[in-house]
Amino acid sequence: MAEQRYGQRRRDPLPEETDAWEALVAAARRTVADGLVVGTSGNVSVRVGDTVLVTPSGVPYDRLTPDDVTGVDLTGRQVLGTLVPTSELPMHLAVYATTDARAVVHTHAVHATAVSTLVLELPPVHYMTGALGGPVRVAPYAPYGTPELAENVLRALEGRTGCLLRNHGTLTHGTTLDQAYDRTAQLEWMCSLWLKASSVPHHTPSLLTESQITEAGTRLRNYGQPG
User: Which of 89, 91, 95, 96 is 20 to 30 A from 159 via CA?
Assistant: First the structure.
């Protein structure tokens, strides 16, 4: 990755970047309101052309303003803002480099993080597994912000739009910020569901078959209103 240099504004944001930043800040604040992160944990990014807007490191989301827009190019060189981007920038950039993602949401959601410590793959207890491309894998642990973690996440994401990070949290991506966020919320809900079902004494949760998951994924692609 190219050397990152912070503290100097490179250029003013374009109108579409200003709009995307506003949506990004709203999504970041929603992760706190929905209990998916605590404090400044987790991060959100949106790709606008060849620029990636991303939450800055260590700044409470309720303090972010339009003037705090933070963006890098696809090599990680800062092109917008003066705030240091999230330490998880390598992970976000790796996802953009290898998928069609236009938005990435990373959280420390409690149920999902708990599941990441228990299994190698989230058991498919619900058909929404199909919305993420299949059973959700757990990326092996690596220190946050490292290229090793980014590589582990990419392997876990093969054929998927979401994964768990062992002893860490979740990552989902989508073609829109709303889609990426919805996938995060669904993943946390499925983790909560499995934990509750598997905790019932003398019972084992029934799981969906591969063909049932595939069928659900196909049906979900046509779910909702046309267009």
Answer: 89
> Which tens digits make up the pLDDT trace of 108-131?
999 999 999 999 999 999 999 999
Q: What is the pTM of this model?
A: 0.93
Q: Are 86 and 54 in contact (CB under 8 A)?
A: yes
Collapsing DSSP to helix, strand or coil, 104 comes out as strand
CB atoms within 10 A of CB 199: 9
The catalytic position among 17, 22, 88, 188 is 88
In the chain, what is the greatest distance between 2 CA atoms, to the nearest angstrom? 62
Please give the sequence-ordered ranges of beta strands (E in DSSP) within the chain, or none if there are none: 43-48, 51-54, 71-73, 78-80, 103-107, 138-139, 162-165, 169-174
Active site residue 3: no
Alpha-carbon distance 195 to 15, whole Å? 44
> For residue 184, which of 127, 103, 121 has the smallest C-alpha distance?
103
**What's the one-letter identity of residue 203?**
H
